[in-house]
Design a protein that fits this description.
One of its GO terms (molecular function) is ATP binding. This protein has about 1400 residues and is α+β, with helices and mostly antiparallel strands. The chain is built from 43 helices and 25 strands. The strands form 9 sheets. Strands 1-2-16-3-12-6-7 form a 7-stranded mixed beta sheet, sandwiched between helices. Strands 13-14-15 form a 3-stranded antiparallel beta sheet. Strand 24, helix 33 and strand 25 form a beta-alpha-beta unit.
């Protein structure tokens, strides 16, 4: 509960809209609570603008509302009457523009409010709209309106800073005059600034910031930072006095670039921009100059090297002498009549001199920027109308208030007086327009405060100027002078316990000022040394900021009053405002947290008082605050006198009669409105509420009467219904008695019927029982006959079993005979191949010897022919001597004939040998084909024999089951004796064990149905045949190359799923594993033999293709086999397996490989969903061991094939550069290293620079492959080539004689140097080749490595083969 005094409670309009009204003059009760509630209601609805007459109140939302300020919104307000649309700054700007164009009177818009209320943003919006209205449709270059708009970011960069109340507070006053021509186009503009806060350059408090331009420059691009020798803002004295360096949502680097672009638009050249930021950087460096005591008394020098660096940097940026800058800061020259005296400054005075230089330079820079903008924009001398926009600081009252707050509050006092006069004038115009009688309305006049401050002589500013003129005056003497002069002034007071403070009672509240810095801040003069230093600068821009003083100026006093000059500027501003038609925008800050959706009532109420809004309301309340049009008044209060509305009179007459009827005094009747005194609206509302209360009582009485009448009707209707119910109950009673009598007669009838039916049923059941006994006897006889028939069938089946056993034995003998023949054929084929190879070798040797003899004979013949020719030539010269030696000639001719015959015979023998070789090769190929066909037939016979064995075992199991059933069902003991069958030995051909088993359910592959022993024998046979068909289909499918799915072999997973589904791993006996091993073994043997035949003869292109296809097929088989082995490794657990004796360590290479593979431990891996652990029986474990052996065998075959393919290429690699980009394993790279390195050692002629370059190019391609391949494929392959890499690197070195032995051993060939020891040890052994490298042919992996490389793969997403999915028996693969 809230308790309050009645006198403190204000009336509230019950019919007011919850969203508030857009014009507070429409409020029924115009008082402070009503105004505050209306603003809060609209602020909650994001309606931040509200009118109070012609005054616009703008509440800062602290959020972006872009939909309120787009071009569409400006188009809406263009030409709209004031008040027709929602309140908006565009409406105020449009009203000012229309008045200027229609009446030719200059306008002004005054934007005020405290820091953070949004004055700067509102000013931007006004200038945007005026530029929109007065802009040109098309213009070349920069237009005036563009320059006016772009001047805002430039002035904000150099004149705005973060304060406690605002992140972008304007620290200067600004009045923008926008000039228009006769057509309403912007023709010129001028910017007037007031009272820049110079002290902020040197002194800031936490958490405020200095001017934005300093932080923008520190975030400039790197080239600018390097040019101006800048660092982080935290390193500069003028910036690090506060801990705030960044603003939320503001990027200083982007703002720097935006400011440079805005400077381009307003007409500041690039050189001038560089000079401006050069001066800004120099000010930052000035602040970092610290001073310490010098050698002389009361002297000062730069403190350390850091200070000297900043001193030199500042002098460099100012383009002045370093020594002159130091002297201007640390010394003063006192000019007397006869001489000049140089006075040294102590460190404190030097620091003050430094700050004074920084402040005057920044102030001159800001004034130059404003003048440059004005000159660039230009003013129109022919313009006769303008619109001025005033963005002035609001009323300020801080904990510490100095000279700046004093001047700011003086400005607000002046503007408040102007505002009060304008509001009073508007009120008078309203009364005159409505032609009502009115008397003078008093309002608070603050002329006494203005006289206290700026009256001349005798005001505070005049006394401050006087104190500044006196050389020995201090702030304490100035304060004492104020106390004596204004001790009786009602607006002036002295705070308690204060020695130099004073308090002024402003219109917005009391403000206490501290006078410590009043005198220093009021003095506006330039130190002569600073003036001379910067005037002599080599930079034209800097020297232009400090032009030489005239003789009159130099002779006059250095002192110039800032307060007096500001008062003159303020006077000129008020003259401009008085010459224009003013419009007001009062900006309000809803909270001090600067956050949206927070409305602090006390804070807003204080700002409304400071802004004069409540004063305007008070002025309105002093006259006739409540105003209503005649139609609104009659509609609202017509119920007070309804008879007034019955006649045919107009609204004015009705209003007058109504007011006379209620006997109200003091009101006024205007032309369109009725004016009421304060409180009269509440009186009329009270009477209206009374009439409404009486009307409500009448309505309640009528409603209660209606409800009573309705209740009586309902009671009467209920009584009638109750009587009807009672009469109906009596009638139903009578009817029930009559119905009982009729029912009793019917019951007697049905009871007699029941007795008769029961006697008939007993007789019928007796006859049926007799018939059933007779029929049962006949059925038992029939059953006995059927049992005898079944026993006979069983005996016949036993006979058939014996026949099948005989057939089985016969087939086994055939298989053994065929196996023996195959082995014999293989031995014969091997012997023949060896004999043919030996014979071919002998023939080739003989052929080579014959060719050598032929060549020698041919050479001898040629020599003899040449000798004969020479002899003939000599004989022609010499005289003929008759010599006859026919025997020698005949002998030579005979020898020639013998030689020719020998050559022809050798050629014939060579041709015959080639023919025999071709025929032998053809016969060997035919025998190979026959052997392969025989081997396939043997495999088929083995398969058929295994099927017969399974059928035999199944039939034995069926016979055993039938015998047991016959024993159980037969009542005759002799039949059971004849049908008993002894246990038979079963041969487990898969593993070689012979076990005597008891009759039980057969467990052959695949056992899908558990109880099929109890089913019909025909069904069991069909099921077994169906299972064999499924195994055949699976084998026919996986024999083909069905490829990979997502990088994983499909065949391996398909086989695993089928074995798992058929429960083959848990079977004691099954042929599936043997068939799979036979398929894998036959594929390996076939491809291996093809590779052997291809490599044993001279390779042709077709043979090379076949060899590559064989390698591809072996790689495909290796991938599937290793994957299947990985799945078995994770699934099978040999809990129930028979423990085996530890085998002896093998001695052969293949045995060691097998032992290394089988040494892997059980892996506990969380596999994919398709892998399940099962207890494996002996066939499954044997199958796993066989798979391990085949994986090792296929790996060795592939490795040897690749090595054979590379051997011929590597032998030519030193002479011919070849492409060695192949995906090889680490052992292949090691093999390459061994072959190439040994070739260099054994073949001395290859150790040349050109051969080294060829090998180096090939090694470069291998290195490129290793870099491009992933580590999982390349591994450490590149390191395996270390010997050949260092050897080739040594061969290709230029000028080897300049390289020392130590450099070769330690830097170039560290690996090769280690081989020197081996060569030294074996130097005595001439046969030894210990310096050669050996090839490592061991198996470099185990089953654990295979499993670890595959355990990351997911097998659940592999798609099974389409051939199997079409078969209904393999639908489980889709699961």
């Amino acid at each position: 509960m809230v308790a309050a005094k009645v006198s403190s409670v204000y009336p509230k309009d019950a019919e007011a809209s919850p969203c508030g009204v857009d014009d507070m003059t429409k409020l029924a009760y115009l008082h402070e609570p009503g105004v505050l509630q209306n603003l809060k209601s609209r602020y909650d609805m994001n309606e931040i603008y509200t009118y109070t007459g012609n005054i616009l109140i703008a509440v800062n939302p602290f959020r972006r509302l872009p939909h309120l300020y787009d071009s569409h919104m400006m188009e809406q307000y263009k030409g709209a009457a004031f008040g027709e649309l929602s309140p908006h700054p565009f409406a105020v700007a449009d009203a000012a523009y229309r008045l200027m164009m229609n009446e030719g009177v200059s306008q002004s818009i005054l934007v005020s409010g405290e820091s953070g209320a949004g004055k700067t943003e509102s000013t931007k919006l006004l200038m945007r709209y005026l530029a929109y209205m007065g802009g040109r449709a098309a213009a070349e270059g920069r237009t005036v309106e563009q320059q006016v708009l772009e001047s805002n970011p430039v002035l904000e960069a150099f004149g705005n800073a973060k304060t406690v109340r605002n992140n972008n507070s304007s620290r200067f006053g600004k009045f923008v005059e926008i000039q228009f021509d006769q057509r309403g186009r912007i023709s010129g503009a001028a910017i007037r600034t007031y009272l820049l806060e110079r002290s902020r350059v040197c002194q800031i408090s936490d958490p405020e910031r200095n001017y934005h331009c300093f932080y923008m420059l520190c975030s400039a691009p790197p080239e600018d930072i390097e040019r101006y020798k800048l660092e982080n803002p935290r390193t500069f004295h003028y910036l690090k006095q506060s801990n705030c360096f960044e603003l939320d949502g503001v990027d200083d680097s982007k703002e720097y670039l935006a400011t440079r672009r805005a400077m381009d638009v307003v007409g500041i050249s690039s050189d001038e921009q560089d000079a401006i930021f050069r001066v800004v950087a120099a000010i930052l460096h000035l602040g970092n100059i610290e001073f310490s005591e010098g050698k002389e008394t009361d002297s000062s020098v730069p403190k350390d090297e850091k200070s000297l660096f900043h001193l030199r940097t500042a002098a460099e940026l100012f383009m002045c002498n370093v020594k002159a800058l130091e002297d201007s800061l640390c010394k003063r020259i006192i000019v007397t009549r006869g001489e000049s005296i140089t006075k040294c400054l102590d460190p404190e005075a030097a620091a003050l001199s430094r700050d004074a230089l920084a402040k005057i330079v920044y102030s001159r820079l800001f004034d130059w920027i404003v003048n440059k903008i004005n000159n660039s924009i230009g003013q129109d001398p022919n313009s006769k109308s303008l619109i001025g926009v005033l963005d002035i600081y609001g009323f300020e009252s801080f904990k510490t208030n100095s000279f700046e707050q004093f001047c700011i509050n003086l400005t607000n006092e002046k503007l408040q007086q102007h505002f009060n006069q304008h509001v009073f004038k508007m009120e008078q115009e309203e009364y005159t327009k409505e032609e009502i009688n009115w008397s003078y309305i008093e309002f608070i006049d603050n002329q006494d405060v203005l006289d206290l401050i700026d009256k001349k002589p005798g005001g505070i500013i005049a006394l401050l100027d006087e104190a500044c003129m006196l050389p020995r005056s201090t702030h304490e003497t100035f304060a004492q002078k104020l106390y004596q002069t204004f001790k009786n002034h009602q607006r002036f007071s002295k705070p308690k316990l204060a020695r130099s403070d004073f308090t002024i009672r402003h219109y917005a509240g009391d403000v206490t000022y501290q006078t410590e810095l009043f005198l220093d801040k009021n003095k506006d003069y330039v130190v002569a040394e600073h003036q001379a230093l910067l005037n002599a600068s080599k930079c034209p821009f800097v020297s232009g900021l400090f032009p030489p003083l005239s003789d009159d100026s130099s002779k006059s006093s250095k002192f110039s009053s800032i307060g007096s000059r500001f008062k003159q500027q303020l006077h000129a501003l008020l003259e401009t405002l008085n010459a224009t038609e003013p419009h007001y925008i009062r900006c309000v800050k809803p909270n001090n947290l600067l956050k949206p959706a927070i409305f602090e009532n006390i804070n807003v109420l204080q700002q409304l008082r400071c802004g004069g809004v409540l004063e305007a309301i008070r002025i309105s309340c002093a006259g006739y605050p409540t105003r209503r049009t005649f139609d609104e008044f009659v509609d609202r209060f017509g119920i007070l006198a309804p008879e007034v509305l019955d006649g045919s009179c107009d609204e004015i007459s009705a209003t007058k009669r109504l007011l006379e009827k209620v006997n109200l005094k003091g009101y006024q009747i205007g032309k369109t409105k009725v004016f009421l005194r304060a409180g009269q609206m509440a009186e009329l509302d009270a009477r209206r509420n009374a009439v409404l209360g009486r009307s409500a009582s009448k309505i309640q009485r009528k409603v209660r009467s209606y409800l009573a009448h309705k209740s009586f009707i309902l009671f009467r209707k209920a009584a009638v219904q109750l009587q009807a119910v009672c009469r109906g109950q009596i009638a139903r009673h009578l009817y029930e008695n009559m119905r009982r009598q009729a029912a009793s007669l019917r019951i007697q009838t049905y009871f007699r019927m029941y007795l008769a039916r029961k006697a008939y049923q007993e007789l019928s059941s007796a006859s049926i029982a007799i018939q059933g006994g007779l029929r049962g006897m006949a059925a038992r006889k029939e059953l006995h006959c059927r049992r005898q028939t079944r026993a006979a069938i069983i005996i016949q089946a036993a006979k058939e079993t014996g026949a099948l056993q005989a057939a089985k034995n016969k087939l086994e003998k055939q298989v053994e005979e065929l196996t023996w023949r195959l082995q014999l054929e293989r031995r014969m084929r091997a012997d023949m191949e060896e004999a043919k190879m030996q014979e071919n070798a002998k023939l080739q040797l003989a052929l080579q010897e014959m060719q050598v003899q032929f060549k020698e004979t041919k050479a001898m013949l040629i020599k003899e022919q040449e000798a004969a020719k020479k002899a003939a030539e000599k004989a022609s010269v010499i005289r003929e001597v008759p010599v006859i030696d026919t025997a020698l000639m005949d002998k030579l001719a005979a020898e020639n004939k013998k030689l020719k015959a020998l050559v022809s015979s050798l050629e014939t023998r060579i041709q015959e040998t080639e023919k025999k070789y071709e025929e032998t090769r053809r016969i060997s190929e035919e025998r190979l084909n026959k052997a392969m066909e025989a081997e396939s037939k043997i495999i088929e016979l083995n398969n058929s024999m295994q099927r017969l064995q399974e059928k035999l075992s199944n039939m034995e199991s069926e016979n055993q089951v039938l015998r047991q059933q016959g024993l159980l069902n037969s009542p005759i003991k002799q039949i059971s004796e004849h049908l008993s069958v002894p246990t038979t030995p079963k041969h487990n051909l898969g593993n070689g064990h012979h076990d005597i088993e008891e009759p039980k359910e057969p467990q052959s592959a695949p056992p899908a149905i558990k109880d099929y022993a109890n089913s019909d024998p025909k069904l069991r046979r069909s099921y077994i045949e169906k299972q064999h068909e499924c195994v055949d289909v699976l084998i026919n499918c996986v024999v083909q190359n069905i490829g990979f799915s997502q990088g994983k072999p499909v065949a391996a997973l398909t086989i695993y799923k089928c074995l798992l589904h058929w429960k083959s791993f848990e079977a004691e006996k099954t042929s599936v594993f043997d068939r799979l091993i036979q398929v894998i073994g036959s594929a390996i043997e076939k491809k291996t033999f093809v590779c052997y035949i291809t490599l044993s003869r001279k390779a042709k292109p077709r043979d090379k293709i076949k060899n590559n296809e064989s390698n591809d097929h072996l790689a495909y088989c290796l991938s599937n086999t290793s994957t299947l082995l990985h799945l078995l490794q994770r699934s099978l657990k040999a809990a129930g397996a028979i423990p085996r004796r530890k085998p002896s360590p093998p001695t052969s290479l293949f045995g060691r490989m097998t032992q290394g593979f089988r040494s892997s431990a059980n892996l506990a891996i969380d596999g994919p969903d398709v892998v399940h652990e099962v207890e494996a029986k002996y066939p499954a474990l044997l199958f796993k061991q066989q798979l391990t052996a085949y994986v090792e065998k296929m790996y060795g075959i592939i490795r040897d094939n690749v090595k054979k393919d590379l051997t011929s290429v590597l032998s030519l690699c030193i002479q011919v550069p070849t492409v060695l980009i192949q995906k090889l394993f680490t052992q292949i790279f090691s093999f390459i290293n061994v072959q190439l390195f040994n070739s260099l050692l054994l073949r001395r002629e290859c150790c040349s620079f050109s051969n080294g370059e060829y090998v180096k190019s090939g090694l470069a391609e291998l290195e490129l492959w290793c870099a491009q391949a992933k580590p999982e494929y390349a591994g450490t392959s590149w390191d395996e080539l270390k010997h050949i890499r260092q050897a080739v690197g040594f061969l290709v070195i230029f000028q080897k004689y300049r390289i020392s032995y130590d450099e070769i051993v330690n830097d170039l060939c560290p690996v090769l140097s280690s081989m020197r020891i081996l060569m030294t040890e074996d130097s005595n052994n001439a046969v030894s080749s210990a310096f050669l490298l050996d090839d490592n042919s061991s198996i470099p992996f185990s089953v654990d490595d295979v499993s670890s490389s595959l355990q990351d793969k997911i097998f659940s997403d592999i798609k099974p083969p389409e051939e199997l999915l079409k078969n209904p028996a393999f639908q489980f693969l889709q699961a």
